[in-house]
Protein backbone atom coordinates (compact mmCIF):
# COMPACT_ATOMS: atom_id res chain seq x y z
CA UNK A 1 0.00 0.00 0.00
CA UNK A 2 3.02 2.30 0.30
CA UNK A 3 2.84 2.51 -3.52
CA UNK A 4 -0.19 4.82 -3.15
CA UNK A 5 2.02 7.54 -1.67
CA UNK A 6 4.63 7.33 -4.45
CA UNK A 7 5.03 10.08 -7.04
CA UNK A 8 5.14 7.50 -9.85
CA UNK A 9 3.31 4.20 -10.05
CA UNK A 10 5.56 1.15 -10.18
CA UNK A 11 3.95 -2.11 -11.26
CA UNK A 12 6.96 -3.98 -9.89
CA UNK A 13 6.59 -2.39 -6.45
CA UNK A 14 2.84 -3.00 -6.54
CA UNK A 15 3.29 -6.77 -6.81
CA UNK A 16 6.48 -7.07 -4.77
CA UNK A 17 8.75 -7.55 -7.77
CA UNK A 18 9.41 -10.82 -9.58
CA UNK A 19 10.30 -12.56 -6.32
CA UNK A 20 7.08 -11.36 -4.72
CA UNK A 21 5.03 -12.74 -7.60
CA UNK A 22 6.82 -16.10 -7.49
CA UNK A 23 6.42 -16.39 -3.72
CA UNK A 24 2.71 -15.53 -3.97
CA UNK A 25 1.89 -17.77 -6.93
CA UNK A 26 4.14 -20.84 -6.51
CA UNK A 27 2.42 -22.60 -3.54
CA UNK A 28 -1.09 -22.39 -4.99
CA UNK A 29 0.06 -23.24 -8.50
CA UNK A 30 2.01 -26.28 -7.31
CA UNK A 31 -0.90 -27.41 -5.17
CA UNK A 32 -3.29 -27.49 -8.15
CA UNK A 33 -0.77 -28.95 -10.61
CA UNK A 34 0.42 -31.71 -8.27
CA UNK A 35 -3.12 -32.48 -7.12
CA UNK A 36 -4.32 -33.02 -10.68
CA UNK A 37 -1.14 -34.73 -11.90
CA UNK A 38 -1.19 -37.21 -9.02
CA UNK A 39 -4.74 -38.27 -9.73
CA UNK A 40 -6.28 -35.95 -7.13
CA UNK A 41 -4.15 -37.22 -4.28
CA UNK A 42 -4.14 -34.67 -1.49
CA UNK A 43 -0.92 -35.44 0.39
CA UNK A 44 1.56 -34.81 -2.48
CA UNK A 45 -0.21 -31.54 -3.29
CA UNK A 46 -0.01 -30.36 0.32
CA UNK A 47 3.67 -31.29 0.55
CA UNK A 48 4.45 -29.41 -2.67
CA UNK A 49 2.63 -26.26 -1.56
CA UNK A 50 4.19 -26.31 1.90
CA UNK A 51 7.67 -26.93 0.52
CA UNK A 52 7.38 -24.00 -1.90
CA UNK A 53 6.45 -21.62 0.92
CA UNK A 54 9.25 -22.88 3.19
CA UNK A 55 11.85 -22.66 0.43
CA UNK A 56 10.94 -19.00 -0.10
CA UNK A 57 11.66 -18.28 3.58
CA UNK A 58 14.91 -20.27 3.58
CA UNK A 59 16.19 -18.47 0.47
CA UNK A 60 15.48 -15.10 2.07
CA UNK A 61 17.24 -16.18 5.26
CA UNK A 62 20.31 -17.27 3.32
CA UNK A 63 20.36 -14.04 1.32
CA UNK A 64 19.52 -11.95 4.40
CA UNK A 65 16.67 -10.16 2.68
CA UNK A 66 13.43 -8.97 4.39
CA UNK A 67 11.26 -11.89 5.47
CA UNK A 68 7.90 -10.12 5.82
CA UNK A 69 6.26 -11.20 2.57
CA UNK A 70 7.65 -14.74 2.55
CA UNK A 71 6.88 -15.25 6.25
CA UNK A 72 3.30 -14.04 5.91
CA UNK A 73 2.96 -16.32 2.89
CA UNK A 74 4.20 -19.38 4.74
CA UNK A 75 1.72 -18.75 7.55
CA UNK A 76 -1.18 -18.58 5.09
CA UNK A 77 -0.02 -21.67 3.23
CA UNK A 78 0.56 -23.49 6.50
CA UNK A 79 -2.98 -22.81 7.67
CA UNK A 80 -4.35 -23.92 4.30
CA UNK A 81 -2.28 -27.12 4.36
CA UNK A 82 -3.30 -27.96 7.92
CA UNK A 83 -6.99 -27.24 7.25
CA UNK A 84 -7.09 -29.41 4.13
CA UNK A 85 -5.12 -32.19 5.85
CA UNK A 86 -7.52 -32.26 8.81
CA UNK A 87 -10.68 -32.34 6.67
CA UNK A 88 -9.30 -34.43 3.81
CA UNK A 89 -10.95 -32.00 1.38
CA UNK A 90 -8.65 -30.37 -1.20
CA UNK A 91 -10.95 -27.35 -1.52
CA UNK A 92 -10.25 -26.50 2.12
CA UNK A 93 -6.71 -25.55 1.15
CA UNK A 94 -8.31 -22.36 -0.17
CA UNK A 95 -10.75 -21.84 2.72
CA UNK A 96 -8.42 -19.63 4.76
CA UNK A 97 -7.90 -17.31 1.80
CA UNK A 98 -11.64 -16.98 1.34
CA UNK A 99 -12.07 -16.10 5.01
CA UNK A 100 -9.31 -13.50 4.75
CA UNK A 101 -10.99 -11.92 1.73
CA UNK A 102 -14.32 -11.87 3.56
CA UNK A 103 -12.66 -10.15 6.51
CA UNK A 104 -10.95 -7.61 4.26
CA UNK A 105 -14.24 -6.94 2.46
CA UNK A 106 -16.07 -6.24 5.72
CA UNK A 107 -13.23 -4.14 7.13
CA UNK A 108 -12.62 -2.09 3.98
CA UNK A 109 -16.34 -1.49 3.41
CA UNK A 110 -16.70 -0.45 7.06
CA UNK A 111 -14.04 2.27 6.63
CA UNK A 112 -16.10 3.70 3.76
CA UNK A 113 -19.40 3.54 5.63
CA UNK A 114 -18.06 5.27 8.74
CA UNK A 115 -16.40 8.02 6.69
CA UNK A 116 -12.79 7.03 7.29
CA UNK A 117 -11.85 5.38 3.96
CA UNK A 118 -8.90 3.01 4.07
CA UNK A 119 -6.92 4.75 1.32
CA UNK A 120 -7.02 8.04 3.23
CA UNK A 121 -5.71 6.34 6.36
CA UNK A 122 -2.93 4.64 4.41
CA UNK A 123 -1.86 7.87 2.71
CA UNK A 124 -1.88 9.62 6.07
CA UNK A 125 0.38 6.97 7.56
CA UNK A 126 2.92 7.12 4.74
CA UNK A 127 2.71 10.86 4.07
CA UNK A 128 5.80 12.94 4.70
CA UNK A 129 4.19 14.61 7.71
CA UNK A 130 2.43 11.46 8.89
CA UNK A 131 3.44 9.34 11.90
CA UNK A 132 5.62 7.00 9.83
CA UNK A 133 7.35 10.06 8.42
CA UNK A 134 8.20 11.45 11.83
CA UNK A 135 5.28 13.83 12.36
CA UNK A 136 2.51 13.68 14.98
CA UNK A 137 -0.37 11.23 14.65
CA UNK A 138 -2.88 14.02 14.03
CA UNK A 139 -1.26 14.76 10.67
CA UNK A 140 -2.23 11.28 9.50
CA UNK A 141 -5.94 12.12 9.67
CA UNK A 142 -5.88 15.88 8.94
CA UNK A 143 -7.44 15.16 5.52
CA UNK A 144 -10.69 14.08 7.18
CA UNK A 145 -11.79 17.69 7.61
CA UNK A 146 -11.56 18.26 3.84
CA UNK A 147 -14.79 16.97 2.28
CA UNK A 148 -13.33 16.92 -1.24
CA UNK A 149 -10.34 14.85 -0.18
CA UNK A 150 -12.54 12.54 1.83
CA UNK A 151 -14.70 11.97 -1.25
CA UNK A 152 -11.68 11.15 -3.40
CA UNK A 153 -10.28 8.76 -0.80
CA UNK A 154 -13.67 7.08 -0.59
CA UNK A 155 -13.72 6.58 -4.36
CA UNK A 156 -10.14 5.29 -4.23
CA UNK A 157 -11.11 2.73 -1.57
CA UNK A 158 -14.03 1.33 -3.58
CA UNK A 159 -11.78 -0.65 -6.00
CA UNK A 160 -10.59 -2.63 -2.98
CA UNK A 161 -14.14 -3.27 -1.85
CA UNK A 162 -14.99 -4.40 -5.39
CA UNK A 163 -11.90 -6.64 -5.60
CA UNK A 164 -12.67 -8.52 -2.39
CA UNK A 165 -16.34 -8.82 -3.31
CA UNK A 166 -15.52 -10.10 -6.80
CA UNK A 167 -13.11 -12.71 -5.46
CA UNK A 168 -15.78 -14.05 -3.13
CA UNK A 169 -18.49 -13.95 -5.79
CA UNK A 170 -16.39 -16.04 -8.18
CA UNK A 171 -14.53 -18.34 -5.79
CA UNK A 172 -17.17 -19.22 -3.20
CA UNK A 173 -19.39 -21.11 -5.68
CA UNK A 174 -16.32 -23.03 -6.90
CA UNK A 175 -15.38 -23.84 -3.30
CA UNK A 176 -18.83 -25.21 -2.47
CA UNK A 177 -18.82 -27.14 -5.76
CA UNK A 178 -15.47 -28.76 -4.79
CA UNK A 179 -14.02 -27.70 -8.14
CA UNK A 180 -10.37 -27.58 -7.10
CA UNK A 181 -8.92 -26.96 -10.57
CA UNK A 182 -11.08 -23.94 -11.35
CA UNK A 183 -10.92 -22.65 -7.78
CA UNK A 184 -7.13 -22.69 -7.87
CA UNK A 185 -7.11 -21.07 -11.30
CA UNK A 186 -9.50 -18.34 -10.18
CA UNK A 187 -7.45 -17.67 -7.05
CA UNK A 188 -4.28 -17.25 -9.10
CA UNK A 189 -5.92 -15.08 -11.76
CA UNK A 190 -7.64 -12.88 -9.16
CA UNK A 191 -4.62 -12.63 -6.87
CA UNK A 192 -1.58 -10.61 -7.90
CA UNK A 193 -3.05 -9.20 -11.17
CA UNK A 194 -6.24 -7.96 -9.53
CA UNK A 195 -4.34 -6.50 -6.58
CA UNK A 196 -2.03 -4.59 -8.94
CA UNK A 197 -5.06 -3.28 -10.86
CA UNK A 198 -6.78 -2.09 -7.68
CA UNK A 199 -3.58 -0.34 -6.59
CA UNK A 200 -3.21 1.38 -9.95
CA UNK A 201 -6.81 2.63 -10.00
CA UNK A 202 -6.47 3.95 -6.44
CA UNK A 203 -3.15 5.60 -7.28
CA UNK A 204 -4.64 7.32 -10.35
CA UNK A 205 -7.54 8.65 -8.29
CA UNK A 206 -5.41 10.03 -5.46
CA UNK A 207 -2.47 11.35 -7.49
CA UNK A 208 -3.97 14.80 -8.19
CA UNK A 209 -4.77 15.27 -4.49
CA UNK A 210 -1.44 14.27 -3.01
CA UNK A 211 -0.10 17.80 -2.72
CA UNK A 212 -3.48 19.09 -1.59
CA UNK A 213 -3.51 17.04 1.62
CA UNK A 214 -3.75 19.53 4.51
CA UNK A 215 -1.27 19.57 7.33
CA UNK A 216 -2.34 19.86 10.92
CA UNK A 217 -1.69 23.25 12.52
Global outline = globular
Radius of gyration: 19 Å
> End-to-end span in angstroms?
26 Å
Helix content: 55-70%
Order of helices and strands: HHHHHHHHH
Number of helical elements: 9
InterPro entries: UCP010219
Organism: Cellulomonas fulva
Pfam families: DUF3159
Keywords: Membrane, Transmembrane, Transmembrane helix
What does this structure look like?
- This protein has 217 residues and is mostly helical.
- The chain has one domain (2-212).
- It has nine helices and no strands.
- It has helices at residues 11-14, 17-37, 42-63, 68-87, 95-113, 118-126, 147-176, 180-189, 192-206.
- It is globular and about 60 Å long.
- The chain crosses the membrane at residues 21-38, 44-62, 67-85, 105-127, 148-168, 188-206.
- It comes from Cellulomonas fulva.
In summary, what is this structure?
The chain crosses the membrane at residues 21-38, 44-62, 67-85, 105-127, 148-168, 188-206. The protein is mostly helical.
How would you describe this structure in keywords?
mainly alpha, 0% strand, globular, DUF3159 domain-containing protein, transmembrane helix, membrane, UCP010219
Amino acid sequence: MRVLAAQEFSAADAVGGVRGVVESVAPGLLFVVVYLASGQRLTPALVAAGAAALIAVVVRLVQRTPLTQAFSGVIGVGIGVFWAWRTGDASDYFAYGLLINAGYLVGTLATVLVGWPLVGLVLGLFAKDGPLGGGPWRNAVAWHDDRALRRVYTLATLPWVAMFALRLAVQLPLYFADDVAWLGTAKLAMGVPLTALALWVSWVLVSPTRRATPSAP
